[in-house]
Amino acid sequence: MKGTSILLAAMAMPVIHAAKPKNYVFFLPDGYGPASETFARDYANFVDEATVKLPVDSFAIGQVRTKSSDSLVTDSAAAATAYACGIKTYNGAIGVDGNHLPCGTVLEAAKLNGYLTGLVVTSRITHASPAGFATHVYDRDMEAEIAEQLVGYSHPFGRVVDLMMGGGKCFFLPQSDENSCREDDVDLWSTAQKRYDWTMTSSREAFDNLHKGESGDLPFAFIPANSHMAYEADRDPQREPSLTEMAITALNLLDRKAKEHETGFFLFLEASRIDHAGHGHDPIAHLFDIIEYNRAMLAVKHWIDDHDDTALLSAADHECGGLTLGVPDYAWYPSVLARAEHTSEYYAAIYKDIVHFNSTEAQRESLIIDRVFGDYGIDNVTPKEIAGLVTANSAAIFLGDLLSARAGINWSTLGHSAVDTTLFGYGLNTEKLVGNFENIEVGHFIAAELGLKLKDVTEQLQANQNFVKLIQPNVKAKKLLKRFQLEHEHDIMQAHTRKH
Amino acid sequence: MKGTSILLAAMAMPVIHAAKPKNYVFFLPDGYGPASETFARDYANFVDEATVKLPVDSFAIGQVRTKSSDSLVTDSAAAATAYACGIKTYNGAIGVDGNHLPCGTVLEAAKLNGYLTGLVVTSRITHASPAGFATHVYDRDMEAEIAEQLVGYSHPFGRVVDLMMGGGKCFFLPQSDENSCREDDVDLWSTAQKRYDWTMTSSREAFDNLHKGESGDLPFAFIPANSHMAYEADRDPQREPSLTEMAITALNLLDRKAKEHETGFFLFLEASRIDHAGHGHDPIAHLFDIIEYNRAMLAVKHWIDDHDDTALLSAADHECGGLTLGVPDYAWYPSVLARAEHTSEYYAAIYKDIVHFNSTEAQRESLIIDRVFGDYGIDNVTPKEIAGLVTANSAAIFLGDLLSARAGINWSTLGHSAVDTTLFGYGLNTEKLVGNFENIEVGHFIAAELGLKLKDVTEQLQANQNFVKLIQPNVKAKKLLKRFQLEHEHDIMQAHTRKH
């Protein structure tokens, strides 16, 4: 009897080499907590009763535990490193462990294994989340160094990124440029083009050519904004494409080039500014960046329907703002959010303009009630509220909190919170991640799906003694970094003869 | 070609009658929002580093959308009715739709189909959640009427519940009893025993006999508390068993009797007071009731491992308190919660005692600092905080908010919030509920799994014209109700000759 059952078991489970996706998309909605999803869905349902679910609702498969190594509440740097390297590290760490040693990321491992790679975000491309996938610095604020590593200028492997879209041009410009955020004369914008073959552009037209046609080569960087790209609610389509447009353009370009090179790709997408809106307590910015994230997720889903060798995972790094729907109690009102056409930042800027108008105080107050409070959706403003705006540290946050209170929602913190985020998946094998996972498990899963060994990449990075020394947090190292960059540049150029 | 593909399709999909569970458990953790899960897990990990997941983390399969028909923020009554009847209704509604018409519940449908049924909770058994599964009143506060329907006294189908465990004895006692919450002379405690064959007991010993042995008959009611049962942190095990003990005792008894009668069972379990602790802003009560919910879920899981004809679904009705982990920012500290051995209600009661001590004010203040603030875990109390306790509307909520602030967590509301809750499943076919669902879909799923037609039950209930009239919200109806109960009682007795 026992023999029989073993035989049956063996027959029932033939050894099958499971199919794996050729391309992987990891889509990070920064600061998108559980309440943010209900929030946007309730609004969508208010606008159109037929909308009972958000697009991403249909892809929900689990939850992600997000704590970092030094706090139960992670920041975006530690969280990006967790997803990218599969390790827990301290808040602020970009691609380094608790000893400031570099860790191999899934993007770097993909690159070393011949995949094409892309980073497409709406924040500065040098911001914590994209940085965590392709660079190594001990402090997320070292965005100048991050920019250098992104183009290949000071990365131990040279250029590991093939495609970049996002904001943050200022960190690529030398300090002589009025738009520069750098404190040195490094002109990465030119250097990237001259020495690393990057096409660097800020032009919407150049993007559109890429978007429409079959042209475009890698490496390609589209960086249309000096700092972050606009919130979706404030976006000028003449200047900046939507995240959805960027995502699909990136997918098409990477897919076409990957097919030419008989390889696959890894693409990191980020709806970066859902988070910024949480920090800023602005329900309008939060709402429309969430809706754009949902649009982009749906577009990626449709793209995958036509490219079933591609898989998608998506999960936030953390919640942001401590959003509660139903304060003081038992109701909240999406209708209150229906009037504003722009974010609180936009109306705060108008307020600052009005303050300087050459008019009577009564005229200015009338304009503030009408064009600031009113246009943002705040009715029946009290004198105390007007006085509050005048004395507020941040007019934008003041307006956001006020509109939120009118809508019956509340922000509990200006930072992040510890609640698990929701995990979304679509495509081959993603059903294996049904359940509750540590963020690092998501990184390991993607690496395994692409057949990548992160540990090997970590060893290669850490074997580079110069680089390891240079990214340690001390002043001497910072000085050495410059020399290293110059010396190293030549080696990198030699190593990169093949251009995607 | 077309013919071939149809043939292939037919071949590929043989008609298989899928296996269905014989028994179903629906376990409701009242007020258990997403942040509550992270909260308890972080604490468990602080106490024992080896604990990286809560038991329920392993059963997470999806999310539940919770809004009611009249608010985006549901109450427990509308939510229980949604799970039980599979309909959206207004906040406050118990087993009735928007027209105050009764709707058939999964428990009633199970009973009419020969299943055994149970309600096991830690609140009053007459509270909204259990009431929504077995009774029909237009307002959740009609707990006297709910008690009547629970024992069979005024339910159109007579007795639909076979097993009850929970608090709320006061609604079964006539107003002459000093513990009564009733405003009439109906003695349900006696009537239930005399006329409906209930075993009614408050005795922990009687429970233990049931727990240990193979004895015990249905219908059986164990109601050891006059109002709600104790919070787990304050529970006296000499008087009240834990939720885990009640859950397993109920499962064993229902299973034994179901096997005798060659049928299955439907059991509603509730960790009722996670919610009360959220309303009360008490992290200690919240924490230990959540941990007990997790213990009970794990025990049910183990029970199912030995009884694989049983399936388990669990989801909260709503979040409660607007809990945020990480206020003001980027950290929260479970260690702060490690000292208290009891809830804020417990220490508030001690405070009230101390206030009446015959001693000097300085002595009383010293005691309050030591035995109230200190024992609850609040160190370095300021004079302002002591004054705050004295003038607080609720000493318990004041203490809870203060301890929460020390721990870096925040409660945004005294009510519920709209965020989706997490769906947990274990056992046969529960993997079909991976994703994001409306709460009513969960009810329909359970009904389908047990082969129940809720619509038929609703029709039967609504065909009872007297009952329909009687539960309409007007004064005349309330008077008629008493007459109906007396007239109806005879019919019910006739209908119920078979006793489980």
Approximate shape of chain A: globular
Largest interface: A-B, 50 and 49 residues
Which CATH C-level class of the largest domain in chain A is it?
A: Alpha Beta
Structural category of chain A: alpha/beta
Q: Based on the structure given, which CATH architecture of the largest domain in chain A is correct?
A: 3-Layer(aba) Sandwich
The low-confidence runs of chain A, each spanning 5 or more residues with pLDDT under 50, are: 1-15, 489-500
Number of domains of chain A: 2
Q: What's the oligomerization state?
A: homodimer
- Mean pLDDT level of chain A: 92
CATH superfamily of the largest domain in chain A: Alkaline Phosphatase, subunit A
User: Strands of the biggest beta sheet of chain A: in what spatial order?
Assistant: 5-6-4-3-7-1-8-13-2-14
Overview features:
disordered N terminus; alpha/beta; 500 residues; disordered C terminus; Alkaline Phosphatase, subunit A; homodimer; 14% strand; two-stranded antiparallel ribbon
